[in-house]
Amino acid sequence: MAQEQQQGVEQSLKEETPKVAVKTWREDLKRPWHLVRCGVGELLASVLLVRITSTSCAEFPGNGSLLQTALTYAFVYATLVQILASTTGHVNPFVTIGFNLMGQLSVIKVLVITNSQYVGSVLGSLLYKYSTPEAVRGANLCAMRVPEELGVTWWQTMALEAILSFVLFLVILAVNDQRMGIPAGYRPPIIGMTLAGCLLMGIKYGSGSLNPLRALGPAVIGEYQVYHLIYWGGPQIGILVAVGMWKFILGPYKMAKQ
Q1: What is the tens place of the pLDDT at every residue in 158-177?
Q2: TM spans, by residue (predicted)?
Q3: Is the dihedral of CA 243, 244, 250, 254 positive or negative?
């Protein structure tokens, strides 16, 4: 009897699981206005993300506490995800690539979105530079760095970037999987709370990015690329592992089989 019930559950999950079609570049080229909307939205969101989060490092009196930095980043990111919910809502190139690996985005859409994000990151740092008094801009326009003076090594920061990005992207995959039944309006707050928790743990290790956009703009405009690759390698590893875990182990159908 128990075996029959288990088979029934598995069959119903198979029937209810939405078939996600792999989008082809030809299909996306038939909708150029949608590509424009995605690109412009991600460009604007990336500008705002870098501009606002960089302010946490500005040397104003009483500015820059751990809690303030983490919550500013998390709240802004969650807000931008909600704003872009009708198009993409990634605001992170590795999240975009992750959804491509999940079969939900075509290569051409990935190229449009990620290049828009990179340009937006640089423009956001430029905006921060010219809209903040020079005396309080902070070191290298708030570029990401490893606190070597505390004994933290580059590989420790990179490892933590990978671990925390893994956690964050697993949550992003979970809340965006229709089989989980999470209402769309709950997704940005859940993602924001997860990001806040990761940042509260990681910032003191130099792991306050989890997103290459946060590192790219200040590294280019602030001319400080000493640790830059750490903030690309770490999140990339974390997101690749998260995709594999969700597709083959932790996805709803797999959990039901256990």
Answers
A1: 999 999 999 999 999 999 99
A2: 35-54, 74-95, 107-128, 154-176, 188-206, 226-250
A3: positive
